[in-house]
Description:
- This protein has about 800 residues and is mainly α.
- Helices cover about 60% and strands about 0% of the residues.
- The chain has a domain at about 55-115 and about 125-220: Alpha Horseshoe (Leucine-rich Repeat Variant), CATH 1.25.10.
- The protein has a two-stranded antiparallel ribbon.
- Helix 8 (about 135-145) packs antiparallel against helix 9 (about 160-175) and helix 31 runs parallel beside helix 34 (about 645-650).
- This is TRPC4AP isoform 2.
Amino acid sequence: MAAAPVAAGSGAGRGRRSAATVAAWGGWGGRPRPGNILLQLRQGQLTGRGLVRAVQFTETFLMERDKQSKWSGIPQLLLKLHTTSHLHSDFVECQNILKEISPLLSMEAMAFVTEERKLTQETTYPNTYIFDLFGGVDLLVEILMRPTISIRGQKLKISDEMSKDCLSILYNTCVCTEGVTKRLAEKNDFVIFLFTLMTSKKTFLQTATLIEDILGVKKEMIRLDEVPNLSSLVSNFDQQQLANFCRILAVTISEMDTGNDDKHTLLAKNAQQKKSLSLGPSAAEINQAALLSIPGFVERLCKLATRKVSESTGTASFLQELEEWYTWLDNALVLDALMRVANEESEHNQASIVFPPPGASEENGLPHTSARTQLPQSMKIMHEIMYKLEVLYVLCVLLMGRQRNQVHRMIAEFKLIPGLNNLFDKLIWRKHSASALVLHGHNQNCDCSPDITLKIQFLRLLQSFSDHHENKYLLLNNQELNELSAISLKANIPEVEAVLNTDRSLVCDGKRGLLTRLLQVMKKEPAESSFRFWQARAVESFLRGTTSYADQMFLLKRGLLEHILYCIVDSECKSRDVLQSYFDLLGELMKFNVDAFKRFNKYINTDAKFQVFLKQINSSLVDSNMLVRCVTLSLDRFENQVDMKVAEVLSECRLLAYISQVPTQMSFLFRLINIIHVQTLTQENVSCLNTSLVILMLARRKERLPLYLRLLQRMEHSKKYPGFLLNNFHNLLRFWQQHYLHKDKDSTCLENSSCISFSYWKETVSILLNPDRQSPSALVSYIEEPYMDIDRDFTEE
């Protein structure tokens, strides 16, 4: 039973207050002063005690107070809603009240996400704030969840239309009133229940939008295996629903980011991995497995990702999806952009959609449209782009998960790569018009633009797909695969086994494969483009792993090396991210390849150019150390080969001559060790440690390891800080042992990329960490006793 209403009058009315009302007001003996009502409601909302709902007031009192405060009658409506939404109600009157409340909140929500939001501050108690303060949110949650209650063995039912109104009102309140979304996120049973509302097309969009917002602030990730009948739910989605559902999946299958930079260090990641091993799979991993167990799930995603614009659903379906579009406020900027495009094309082409005011609809549920219901082509394209963004993201996350090989097999089988190749020119990398679509408040080059985000997501997918996997050759067409075979034949080397094993029925069709198309747009990209980083990463992933001469020559023949050098030297690129990606790509392209070094020397044909190149390398070794490593490894191999072509390159190449000098190697080694510490090691800069090890391993092969350690000691003394470098290096190598001896993938990558057996890596580290001060190859032999500091705990700062 609800608490008895508060008496509106004075005098005799005070004596008739119920005990429940007195308790609700905390025993306060006087009539509530109007100025304190909202404060008390807010306090009650925080504590769960005292004034918390409109039902604790009489209608007369609320009307009187509303005249002064202009609450738009919301508290009175909530009082009626509570009365008409009891368990035995037919909900007819209840739905009428919701229809009255909805426009009061929806217009405010629309204002909130536009430039007018500055007018709707909480201090003016806007409608959504009053609605929540008088218990509206909790009441709607109770109404929505009525179907979970059984009376005499029968579950209660509410109409889809009523559920839709409740969801819209809840979402608008979340948009405008701080803290509402977080409170809903804490109601785990409610969040799980929301998924069941997605079975109806009428409530799908509102439900999906609300769920996405709630999951975005939820502290603990929801587990999809707790959703009733998940497989049936997802299998019954049409393609548009599945694409929108991917927005929710993006939150549920990605590992949660704590936002703490320390968590990105390898120390913290290792600690987290140990903790995870004891706890079992994470919620994200469980959710990925749950999705992959749904029959046909990945196949449908591949079809969505590769669907052409002409194959997408027609105007009527799209209009139905945008019905009452004001509730889709997480995409309000996108819809705003779509409407502007529609209006622009209407002015030029006289073919447009007339968007109705919120709530206006025909009897069949579709918004009123003009006689000309042809959807503008730009809106069709943007509609498809928004879908593909979400789908590609989900596929990308699955490709990086525990079931990577299973996902790889399915993606290949369902021809995702050939499908994306066919969309490359017309959708993914389509040419923009002069008035290219951008979001409200953004510019054409902003990374938030849907067009730009799609390109980046596409490139991330290619990177994940190609990285250390033989399926990377699906990025080529049959003619290009034949070219790889011809390169191997001409060089008199065995053909790559993965090329021979590639299923030719699954590769790209057309004149060019996806990799070649990517190279073409990469070379045309403006100097300041943000795509350069992602393009280089995607191409580099194709080269990663065991070095393939044929793969390198395939790219060299298409002018990739010259393009990279132009960007590094002639355009004097300033972006650290782009420089790092270009140096990494250049290293993979040149490693062990005599032809690549000849091309390098032909392009860098003056001392001036070479000095610019060295300046870029030395400006940040964190960015360029992978190139330094690849050149060092190549030099070592070339010096051990008896071949006229190799001898010619060794005698002519400026870069090889520069790296061959011991002072150069020592300078690199000193700086590589000095810029990293155990506490600051990340996935990005741990390569500096491995590059320093490569230099010392190659020195050990030549029995020069003691010389290099002695030179490091001298360099320490010259800096007037004896021991600081070698102590740090000792700690770094101790961490290296802990990190790599328990991570199979990382050790395999080190072996494949360097062509040095991992056993030699381990032996070299063990020799360097030998505690015997008499050993000429042990670090401790070069640290004087007063400066010894090698046993520090890794967690110490």
